[in-house]
Amino acid sequence: MAQSNPPRPDHRLWTPARYRALLRRQGPRSVQFRTRLAILIGAVAIGLAATLFARGADTASEVFGHFAAQYHWAPLVVTPLLFAGLVWITRRFVPLARGSGIPQVMAAQADPSRATEGLVSVRTVVGKAGLTLAAVLGGASVGREGPTVQIAAAIMGLTHRILGVPLRGAVLIAGGAAGVAAAFNTPLAGLLFAIEELASAYEQKVTLLVVAAIAIAGMVAQSAQGDYIYFGLIGAHMPIATALVAAPLAGIVGGLAGGGFARLMLMLATGTNRVTLWSKRYPVLFAGLCGVIVAGLGVGTGLTWGTGYGAARAMIVGVDAPLWFGPAKFLATLATAVAGLPGGIFAPSLSVGAGLGNLLRSVFPGSPASAIVILGMVGYFAGVVRAPLTAVIILSETTASRGLMLPMFAAAFIADGVSQLVCREKLYHGLSHTFAVR
Questions:
Q1: Which terminus of the chain has a lower count of CB atoms within 10 Å, N or C?
Q2: Residue 15 carries which DSSP code?
Q3: Entry pTM
Q4: What is the pLDDT of residues 308-323, one digit of tens each?
């Protein structure tokens, strides 16, 4: 019987040449290692930057609140002048910082390396952060979430440039999604927003980068800010019989209003009508007139200043609010968004949605007020952004209302369909064309 020889170890695996080749591929000097290190450092920096930016925005909002309470009529002069001044500064020094910040990141994916010199450059995002805080300090109806996305993408671009590794569009998506997650403390919403909006299609590599960046940025943000729920622990729920009527109604109303907002914004940003052409010819004067509208609404109501977070949270917990809040906040947010100054629309859109939900409460007087308001927020947000999954998850995570998931999904998908009938083009996609890299 033949005796089989035991297999001999392959000593070639441990030759110096192979060891050097392994170091070149995966060692500290390899592109793969430096790429992972750039994402790790970038995600940590995003968490810290989002925390600092959030605290700065909250402080600016509090300062303006005290100012408006002490000098009731002063914003009628200060806010329009501030709008005009901020638009002049933006156009003169950092033109790519105007608006939300999300369209810039979407446009940057076409040429990521070149975008780090413009759309997501350090100069642009520093100006973006400062001018957004100044807008909040003047009572503008802006949010910090969109700017956080642009800042986060710029941080990823900077870490890749410092470590000398190629920058891909997927990395910008990862950074932007991590910015959303850190801003709202909503990791799942950040992931879904990346897939629905920032990325044109689902890619496994993109998703793995996004998950890694979100996890790291989220942990850093939570360590700095504490484990909190954006709107508080609401835990809303609704009987199935009421949900069968309330969810479709919220979807229809939210889709019509959200689609109308998107259409008006795109019309004034990319249209050829007389108002648009005049606003582009006299941008500073147009911004001042938009400031007059925002100031008039703010002084007249006392509730439409800033993000509207306080009013939205009050309506979510069941506090009675005036029925005109939703339409008034809609107009203040639109006037701010089309003025051309830096600032996002995420948080103001949630406030408008809360106002629409507050209007629907009169239709369902016996239903839980918080559930109706949240459905209004989901419907309107999905109508504006046309990202129904993000709308559901972001409201689920910011209110801890997981028992309301099915009605929220119904409202969001109906709102998405209705909004598409009003405005065919997605808002952020349409705005990204104005930042196309040429």
A1: N
A2: S
A3: 0.88
A4: 888 999 999 888 889 9
Closest CA to 248 of 411, 413, 420: 411
Distance CA 123, CA 129 (A): 10
Name the token pair of 71. 């000098």
| Alpha carbon separation from 125 to 51, 107, 186 (Å, rounded) | 15, 15, 23
Among 403, 376, 380, 390, smallest CA distance to 246 is for 376
Least confident of 74-83, 178-187, 281-290, 331-340: 178-187
DSSP state letter for 199: S
227, two tokens: 């484990």
385, exposed or middle or buried, with CB in 10 Å at 0-12, 13-18, 19+? Answer: buried
> Cα 11 from chain centroid?
55
Residues 45, 216: Cα–Cα separation, whole Å: 10
CA nearest neighbour of 309 among 384, 397, 218, 232: 232
CB 82 within 8 A of CB 302: no
Give me the half-sphere count of Cα atoms (radius 13 Å) on the Cβ side of residue 10: 3
